[in-house]
Amino acid sequence: MKFTNVVLFAVAVVLSFSLIAGTTISFAQEKMSMDEYRAQLQQWQEREANAKKASEDCAAEVEKLKGEIETTQAEIEKVWGEILAEIGTDQAGVDAFREKLKALEADVDGLLALTPEELFKKRSEVEAAEAKLEEYKKDRISALTEMQNLIATIEGKLTQVKNKMPKAIYDEYTVVVGDYLWKISGKPDIYNDPIQWMRIYSYNKDQIKDPDLIYPDQVFKIQREVGPDEYLVGKGDYLAKIAGNPDVLGDPASWTKIYEKNKDIIGEDPNQIFPYTVLVIPKD
Amino acid sequence: MRKMFRALFISSAIAMMVVAFAITGCSRGPNEKELQALEETKSAALAAESKLSDCQSEKASLESQLAEKKQKLEEMKQEKADVQNRLSNF
């Protein structure tokens, strides 16, 4: 009996310590005390309350900002409308004008990509582009800063084109002993046509006083392309006809201007001009 | 005498059990329901903070937009003055 009592007592002691130790260990490992629980609960409740309050304030500020953005946008549109009224067009007109300028810029870019010789041949296109730009500059829409910038860009490119374009396209030929204009003109690498001697003579009038007198080592310019202020006389041409050509002066009565400018090469009789004569066309 | 010892042993054992239960009972942690309430409060707080963060991001974006619009408005006013000036020279 005594042994039974001792065992019973030991079981009670072990059970009690197990309960206390188990509780303590479980607290230490994963559980929290009620104080900690309350502290955490209060902390989260405060965070939630603070966040909700701040959210409400933030939402009010967001609404205010939206309103300000709307008002500012309306002001922008109002001022833009006033600008459009100043230049006398609408948004579609501005867009169309921009497209025209961009198309012109693309044309000028195309010209800029050409070789100098190709450019010389297409100089009428360069002049047309310049004329078109001048026309656009007269449009009130060009007063917009965006258009001013585009126009300045195109003008810069046109300047590059003109700098790249040669004033004249010609080769050079050095006279050798035994040469005469007829012979030079007939050479395959010159004009391959003796009759065109007049072209060499008139194009080098500053060096040739008498077409029958040329000297070795003289360097003649052999014209390859007719320049912008030049006219190559063709068969059947006469001064009034040339002056009447829209690409020349566009007025037959102005033939005297051509004659005066080329009197030294034409001679005393304006009714007699020879094919392949290079005439200089007066600018005004 | 033997009965007295036996009674003393049993009383001591019972007393120790009572004390043990008392200790564990007095220092109890939050129960399941309380823990769930804490979790819900925590979730609600985090959700509110997340909403606040979203709102603050939107606010920052709108402030930036407003600054851009104001800048654009100033440019537009300047453009109007420039256009008027250029047109006067047409």
Summarize the amount of helix of chain A as a percent range. Answer: 55-70%
What's the helical proportion of residues of chain B? Answer: over 70%
Most extensive interface, chain pair and sizes:
A-B, 57 and 53 residues
CATH superfamily of the largest domain in chain A: LysM domain
Our measurement of the CA-to-CA distance between the termini of chain B, rounded to an integer number of angstroms, reads 133 Å
The run of helices and strands of chain B is HH
Instruction: Give a count of the beta strands of chain B, DSSP E runs of length 2 or more.
Output: 0
Structural class of chain B: mainly alpha
Profile the largest sheet of chain B: none
* Shape label of chain B: rod-shaped
Second rung of CATH, namely the architecture of the largest domain in chain A:
Roll
Q: Based on DSSP secondary structure assignment, what is the total number of beta strands of chain A?
A: 4
Description:
The complex is a heterodimer of chains A (284) and B (90). Chain A is built from 11 helices and 4 strands, in the order ααααααβααββαααβ. Chain A has 284 residues and is mainly alpha-helical. Chain A folds into 3 domains: 38-87; 91-164, no CATH class; 169-280, Membrane-bound Lytic Murein Transglycosylase D, Chain A (Roll), CATH 3.10.350. In chain A, the strands form 2 sheets. A two-stranded antiparallel ribbon of chain A has the order 1-2. The model of chain B has no long low-confidence stretch (mean pLDDT 85). The interface between A and B is large, with 57 and 53 residues.
Key attributes of the depicted protein:
A: 284 residues, mainly alpha, two-stranded antiparallel ribbon, 11 helices, 4 strands, 7% strand, B: 2 helices, 0% strand
List the helices and strands and how they pair.
The complex is a heterodimer of chains A (284) and B (90).
Chain A: H1 2-29, H2 34-87, H3 91-112, H4 116-121, H5 123-137, H6 145-164, E1 169-174, H7 181-186, H8 197-203, E2 219-225, E3 230-232, H9 239-244, H10 255-261, H11 263-266, E4 278-280
Antiparallel strand pairs in A: 1-2, 3-4
Chain B: H1 2-26, H2 32-88
